[in-house]
Specification:
Rossmann fold, globular, eight-stranded mixed beta sheet, single chain, seven-stranded mixed beta sheet, about 500 residues
Length: about 500
């Protein structure tokens, strides 16, 4: 048996000014051919599960590409071609018995609004009968093209995404059972006109907690898998928003009924998917009154894990203005600042115009550096391995990295974007996050994978950036309308689809 196993991942924030050329995938670690197996065997990724199960079956592996980039703006046409061409070329050669694909589900390219749907459609055109299994992120914007051209498609049930390997195993087994004549997977999917906000999708919180529990409970009898996708609301494409998919064993009616039950439950709680914030001055002041740490301050509007520039200084500036002490920040993207610190050397005192290097025209915001003075505490190559519950075993490459110590605050400054979902962002540069009173993290929910257990409290800070939860700052051109909460007709039918 010859199995094609590949990974192609990017969560595209169409409002982000950060470009996404091929080099951005290379910087994260784009692997081709046999290097795919070396990079991902034994990891907690879906592709890691695929490799484990395929090798256990004694299958011959065809691994054209495994590439991922930190979220940013639309994928360049050249990068999209480089991502898809190796997969399509292998399919075109023939002799593939099945494909297992580790995708995201919210990729928008310069010339293609539905990156994954187009890939799957082209695979199906080349090999009409090829069995195809797909895993997607919980934040996938599911489309008809994606479902129509897959044999079995499911998504993560956790946010932070700590079940990636579990989901990979689940869909691979469904596909293998199909190949062995033990199952006949049929899928039913749908959506509701609901642009849920990412801060309201944590699966330890309501409303996602109950939805995920309902999806798990549905997986019995003829139902092989059930997934609720929160969707990615910062991708301006027609199908952005909440959706659900159910795979049944030969029973399309059962799949459709389970799907509708999940979607109706989600639509009934649409108000719970809206984030309601507070003034940043008030949030930081509340943090200042908490006597024991670590207290996490979430700079969620500049989360590079959702396409933020990671150099907006609004929250850091407010924390300094209010005089908070014993603070660690992860992380500010500023390659120029790192180079200046390298030139100065460890132990030197430097004054930097830190961050604020990136304008954000989509939300009318200009970059605003913050002048800070401190000591160069440490210089690093920025390479370490995730050991926590998310991306376990995957190597992180931040590029040249530095730590600036202002006396009250230690700031990790990086040359490549990376969301802090693992304490390695601090421990790799000699900072013990457990010993700090305050941790400023440019994250939304993924920080919980590495930091939830050590946090005494978490304060959400409404700063600035292109991962804002303020819908009034965003201008959609391709999104289907009407959609809640951008449009609020008084007579939304409860079964509006």
């Amino acid at each position: 048996m010859r199995l094609l196993i590949a990974m192609m991942k990017h969560e595209t924030n169409t409002f982000s000014p950060i470009p996404t050329p091929w080099q951005r995938f290379v910087d994260w670690g784009a692997h081709l051919g046999s290097d795919v197996v070396k990079a991902y065997r034994g990891t907690a990724m879906p592709i890691g599960a695929y490799l484990d199960l395929a090798e256990a079956r004694g299958a011959e592996l065809v691994t054209p590409i495994a590439a991922e980039a930190m979220p940013s703006g639309p994928v360049s046409a050249d990068a999209y071609r480089r991502l898809t061409a190796p997969i399509l070329e292998e399919v075109a050669k023939g002799g593939i018995d099945a494909a297992l694909l580790d995708l995201h589900g919210a990729m928008v390219a310069e010339d293609e609004l539905d990156g994954e749907g187009a890939l799957l459609e082209n695979i199906r055109r080349l090999a009409p009968g090829l069995p195809i299994a797909v895993t997607c992120d919980l934040h996938a914007n599911l489309t008809d093209r994606m479902v129509r051209n897959a044999t079995a498609l499911i998504g993560y049930k956790t946010y932070p995404h700590t079940d990636m390997h579990i989901v990979g195993r689940q869909v691979a087994r469904i596909l293998f059972d199909s190949l062995d004549g033990k199952a006949r997977p049929v899928m039913a999917w749908g959506n509701r006109p609901l642009l849920a906000q990412t801060l309201r999708m944590g699966t330890a919180d309501e409303p996602m907690k109950s939805l995920v529990e309902a999806a798990r409970a549905a997986e019995t009898g003829k139902i092989l898998a059930a997934t609720v996708f929160g969707g990615f609301p910062l991708a301006d494409m027609p199908d952005a928003g909440l959706s659900a998919i159910v795979i049944a064993d030969g029973d399309p009616a059962a799949a459709a009924a389970a799907r509708d039950a999940l979607l109706d439950r989600a639509w009934g709680r649409r108000d719970d998917f809206l984030y309601r914030g507070e003034a940043i001055e008030s949030a930081v002041a509340r943090a200042a009154r908490i006597e024991q740490g670590p207290v996490i301050l979430l700079d969620h509007a500049d989360n590079c894990g959702s396409g933020g520039t990671q150099d907006v200084m609004t929250v850091v500036e407010e924390v300094l203005r209010q005089g908070l002490e014993d603070v660690a920040v992860a992380a500010i993207w500023d390659p120029d600042a790192v180079r200046a610190m390298q030139r100065a050397g460890i132990g030197s005192t430097v004054t930097l115009a830190l961050g604020g290097k990136t304008d954000m025209p989509s939300i009318g915001l200009e970059g605003k550096p913050l002048t800070v003075t401190g000591k160069v505490k440490l210089l690093s190559d920025g390479e370490w391995v995730c050991r926590g519950s998310m991306y376990t075993g995957v190597k992180v490459m931040l590029g040249p990295t530095a730590v600036l110590d202002t006396g009250k605050m230690e700031i990790v400054i990086v040359s490549r974007h990376h969301e802090p979902w693992d304490i390695g962002i601090f421990t790799s540069v000699g900072i013990d996050p457990r010993a700090k009173r305050y941790l400023v993290l440019k994250s939304r929910i993924h920080y919980r994978a590495g930091f939830a257990e050590l946090a005494r409290a978490t304060i959400t800070c409404d700063g600035d950036g292109v991962t804002t939860s303020d819908n009034d700052k965003l201008r959609f051109a391709h999104l289907r309308r009407p959609i809640y909460p951008l449009d609020r007709p008084n007579d939304w039918p409860e079964d509006r689809a």
